[in-house]
Amino acid sequence: MSKQEMFKDRNISEDYFFLDIEDYPTTPWEKFKRVVKRSLKGELFVGLWVVLREMIKFDIHTVQYPEEKLPIGPRYRAVHEMKRLWESGTERCIGCGLCEKICISKCIRIETRYDENQRKEVGEYSINLGRCIYCGYCAEVCPELAITHGGEYENASEQREHFILYEDMLTPIDDVLNKKQREFQGFGAITPHEDERLKKTPLAY
Ligand code: SF4
Ligand code: SF4
């Protein structure tokens, strides 16, 4: 058979078969019989057996929250933390306001003032967690690595507006003295191997 004839040969009936189409049931008894026949198939009992088998094993993988909690990633972006300097324990935030400017949800509010030495200090700082989308921009833009994201994700509130204040986010001074301040836990903090990744300025230009 030439290719032209093969192309035109549409007789592929060997792969086709006729369906045994039953007559549509008309009486209630015939309808009932058809429902039973279509419902009770072997697959149903296979599925039931799989469920029963897993129940008998008692190998339950459900996490019993809140008693049990799964570990979260070190870069998880949850409620913010404000860090202190390791050396002196003073607050890292210099009140530059970059985090407030970059926040796309407009949920950061910062007020600064001059202290007795005419140095700028943070007067009030709050984040409306009800608006925050945890994008991490504030942590990324912070030049002092002062604001980072922490791992505290249980911050549900009864109200849409839910503020967290600077004092609540700030690392307690005792934690810095006892070396408990988590440096790499939040988004925006330096990585432990940052010194290795640092490149010297090339002198070729
Ligand atoms: S995580 Fe994003 S939305 Fe939340 S305070 Fe920071 S910049 Fe604003
Ligand atoms: S948290 Fe960082 S970016 Fe925001 S005001 Fe303080 S130093 Fe500036």
In the residues, how many domains can be counted? 2
Rg calculated over all Cα atoms = 33 Å
Distance linking N and C termini: 74 Å
Bound compounds, each kind once, are: iron/sulfur cluster
Instruction: Give me the count of strands.
Output: 5
- Described by the principal axes of the CA atoms, the overall outline is elongated
| Structural category | alpha+beta
CATH-defined fold name of the largest domain: Alpha-Beta Plaits
Q: For this structure, what is the CATH class of the largest domain? A: Alpha Beta
What is the residue-mean pLDDT, rounded to a whole number? 86
Helix content: 25-40%
Strand order of the largest sheet: 2-3-5
Instruction: Count up the helices.
Output: 8
Q: Mind telling me which CATH architecture of the largest domain this is?
A: 2-Layer Sandwich
Low-confidence stretches: none
Hey, roughly how much beta strand do the residues contain?
5-15%
Oligomer: single chain
Largest sheet: 3 strands, antiparallel
N-to-C SSE string, H for helix and E for strand: HHHEHEEHEEHHH
What topology does this entry show?
Blueprint (H helix, E strand, L loop, with lengths): L2 H6 L19 H12 L2 H16 L22 E3 L15 H5 L5 E7 L5 E9 L8 H5 L5 E3 L13 E3 H4 L3 H5 L16 H4 L8
Antiparallel strand pairs: 1-4, 2-3, 3-5
Bound molecules: iron/sulfur cluster (SF4) (2 copies).
One iron/sulfur cluster (SF4) binds next to helix 5.
